[in-house]
Amino acid sequence: MTALHHLIIAVSDRDAATRYLVDLLELREPWENGFFQSVQLDDHVVVNFAAPPVEIQPQHYAFLVDDDHFDRIRSRFDAEGTPYTADPPGRRPNEIGVFNGDGTGRRLYFSGPDGHMLEVITARYDDVPQRSRSGPPGS
Fold this sequence. Notes:
This protein is of the alpha/beta class and 139 residues long. It has helices at 14-25, 67-80, and strands at residues 6-10, 31-33, 36-40, 46-50, 60-64, 97-98, 106-111, 117-121. The chain has two domains: 1-56, Signal recognition particle alu RNA binding heterodimer, srp9/1, CATH 3.30.720.120; 58-128, 2,3-Dihydroxybiphenyl 1,2-Dioxygenase, domain 1 (Roll), CATH 3.10.180.10. The model has no long low-confidence stretch (mean pLDDT 93). The two termini are 14 Å apart. Strands 1-4-3-2 form a four-stranded mixed beta sheet, with helices on one face. It is globular. The protein has two helices and eight strands.
């Protein structure tokens, strides 16, 4: 088995960034983890937020959520006036993107703490070539 265990996101205020993610993704309580403020996603991946002296370089992080959660996030953004877009360059503001050929897989991009480009999606990519898919060959 190969799986992502944890990642580190550099932010200017690790507590505020953690609260933002916990609130948005409806996660369980974060914890102090040495240098980090940490939170665990439903798939057990741990997100560690690190504050300076680390260098902050905006990155992209996508989170898989169910359809109801996606709708709550979009409704919240609409109510708060939080900008989002259907595409990474931002050419389709306040629209939802669809990324699978069969019309499934909704997504929206938005700016998170310290300019990180965040994304929420409702499905996994269905166009991963068979030879590149995880799991036993032929599965």
